[in-house]
Amino acid sequence: MAQNSMASMSAAHQPTTGTPAWIRQIDGFTQSSSFRQLLILVALAATLSFMVGFFLWGQKPSLVPLYTNLGPKESAAVVDALRAAKKNYQLSADGAILVDPAQLPAVRMLLASEGLPSGNGVGLEMLDKDQSLGTSQFVEHARYQHAIEVELARSIETIQGVSAARVHLATPKQSVFVREQQPPTASVVVELSPGQSLTADQVRAIVHLVASSVAGMKPENVSVIDQRGELLSQNSDDASGMGLTDKQFAYRQRVERAYARQIEALLTPIVGANQVRAQVSANIDFSRQEGTSETYGPKTGVVLSEQTSDTTRALGDQGINGGVPGALTNQPPGGGTVTPPTAGGLQPPANLNVQQYQQIIQTPISTQKNETRNYNVDKDIRHTQYASGAVDKLNVAVLLDEKTVTDKDGKTKTEPMSDAELARIKDLVSQAVGLDEQRGDKLTLASIPFVEQKIEKVSVPLWQQEWFMPLLKNLGLGVAMLVIFLMVVRPLLKMLADKSRPEALPHQPGAALPNGTEDNGMNEEGVSFTRQAGEGGQIPGPDDVDNLEGVPQLVGAASYADKLRQLKQSINHDPKAVAAVIKQWTHSEN
Q1: Options 1.10.260.40, 3.40.50.620, 3.40.50.2300, 3.30.300.30; CATH of 122-127+136-240
Q2: 484 and 47 in contact (C-beta within 8 Å)?
Q3: Would the pTM of this model clear 0.70, i.e. be above it?
Q4: Which residues pair with 390 in a beta bridge?
């Protein structure tokens, strides 16, 4: 090791031939301690920058989407508005616009003031804009219809589960002829949120919303479909009555729950909370019935019309007169006698004169009287339509927990209720729900011990709590920074401190050295060494190994034998100084 070090030190002072000067300068600069110190400083600065950036990244808040389901055109308009307002934003890989959660409300209000995002288009606000003078009636009608479609789409999008909607209206031109008029129709396309579906009530609400917004449109002329192409509005179901099935089932459940809650509320003060369970099964009649009844009043009434006819028959109605009608025939012959015929079994007297005969034939022999009266009869006609949903039959089951009693020894135990108690409770339940035995209602009451169920508290796992992930993130950040400091920064600082110490360089004999170092010249073997001037002129011992400038260093171009002989003499003369030199070599190589 001593030989190699001495040779390298001697070779460093010999001129090099064949190498350009600028390469030697670069090589000398790269081999210098200043260059090594510069590299250490650059590495230290890069490490500190990385640590600061890593810390700032850990403290950076998570960004949230500003809007979802925006089209490319709307996203571009929003980005332009954010740039004009100098708001910070980021674009994700899927094109979503991300902003700071603390600025989300303010940014949305700013965009809303500028009418962004525009959604499906411009609605009725287009009417506030000035129209050109040459706009035709057809264009005005088309703009108005488009505005109605946009407004309806906006209203439909407010329904839960609908992320986007489009409305198409078909309004035919009105005709003066009734037979040529066609009803307006509408089609609604809804885009549902992931995992969402519309209920039948929501679909009917959309249908009636659109139908009520267009004059003359009927609900059966509105079709609603989703993004998968499924028809959601089934108008034929309502017409056939099948659409009421869900409502009927829901109505039955509501009736049964109402009866069950009524029973439990009645018995809870008697047996205690959570000591009673009630179940009701109701048979509901959903058939529709209609009836008509006529009710007549008393026999007497108001006379509406009256007709009376009187008929009287006389003896002369038998037609005994004869001859040609005239004045002569109407005059009876004078002085003659007349024998009247018999009529009705009556035999008039014989040998009557004309006067007597006239008197006899004018005497009435029968009289007939007819009377017809029409009365206004008091009649009540009622047309009744009975509502569906009547309860036909009830089956009630009530389960009671056994009661807790205390014996003479003070011990508590459970025992079933007595028959008398069950009978009283049964009467109460029957009166509460209105049981009717004639229609077949049944009530079952039992006292059975309940099983105690120990409900364990559901604890949220530690890693699912809100504070866990931020804490874990901060701890990981701190550990990472500590590891970087111990593995990178600390060794760099130590290397920088070691390289900052001055090294003893070869020099010419008799030259002045810094820090009080003097040249001791050549010895008898042609090898010179330098020695640090200290107190008393003593060479530093092993305790001063960190201060190696005072250790003798061999200088010159002596032969290997001379250097070896001088080294042996130095070891014999001052072994501590030689040990210090060896430590310096070891430290320099490391």
Answers
A1: 3.30.300.30
A2: yes
A3: no
A4: 285
